[in-house]
Amino acid sequence: MAEKNYFTINEISKKTRVPEYTIRYWESRFKLLRPLRLASGHRRYTARDAELIGEIKDLVLMKGYTLSGAKKVVYSKKKPGQPAQALRPSDDTIKLLEDIKKELQQIVKEC
After folding, report:
1. Where are the beta strands (DSSP E) in 1-111?
2. How far is the C-alpha of 107 from the C-alpha of 40, rounded, in Å?
3. pLDDT digits (tens, 9 = 90+) for 53-99
4. pTM of the full predicted structure?
5. Beta bridge pairs of residue 44
6. Would you put residue 53 in left (φ > 0), alpha (ψ -120 to 50) or beta?
7. How far apart are CA 1 and CA 24, in angstroms?
8. How far are the Cα atoms of 26, 28, 93 from residue 65, in angstroms, in the given order?
């Protein structure tokens, strides 16, 4: 049986023992925590996301860090010289994806 690659927020909540509303809040505070969003708006988390949530939980709830302090610790563990924005697609990539989406929508309308 293959291991799952993506998890729902409910599964991640149970796995990390962090309430769903807390996970959603942390998403707004930590740019590294950006789950895949389906067209329906549902979130899909990776194992890496679960590890990050566990790390944030440990720092904030167990060790007493503030969110700002936890953010500094989490971001300091990133590879030196790698900006936080490196995970975001370029403007050209976004434009290309938007063009592809428009073409696909047009094809669907014609069918």
Report:
1. 36-37, 43-44
2. 20
3. 999 999 999 999 999 999 999 888 875 555 544 456 777 878 888 88
4. 0.64
5. 36
6. alpha
7. 30
8. 14, 17, 37
* Residue 20 DSSP one-character state: H
Handedness of CA 54, 58, 64, 70 (dihedral sign): negative
Place of tokens 């696909």: 104
Which region, left, alpha or beta, applies to residue 73 given φ > 0 means left and ψ of -120 to 50 means alpha? Answer: alpha
Q: How many CA atoms lie within 13 A of 45 on its CB side?
A: 24
Contact 6, 40 (CB under 8 A): no
CA 44, CA 5: separation in Å to the nearest integer?
9
Listing DSSP states for 53-79 in one string gives HHHHHIIIIIS---HHHHHHHHHHTSP
* Spatial contact of 71 and 30, defined as CB atoms under 8 Å apart: yes
Q: Are 55 and 74 in contact (CB under 8 A)?
A: yes
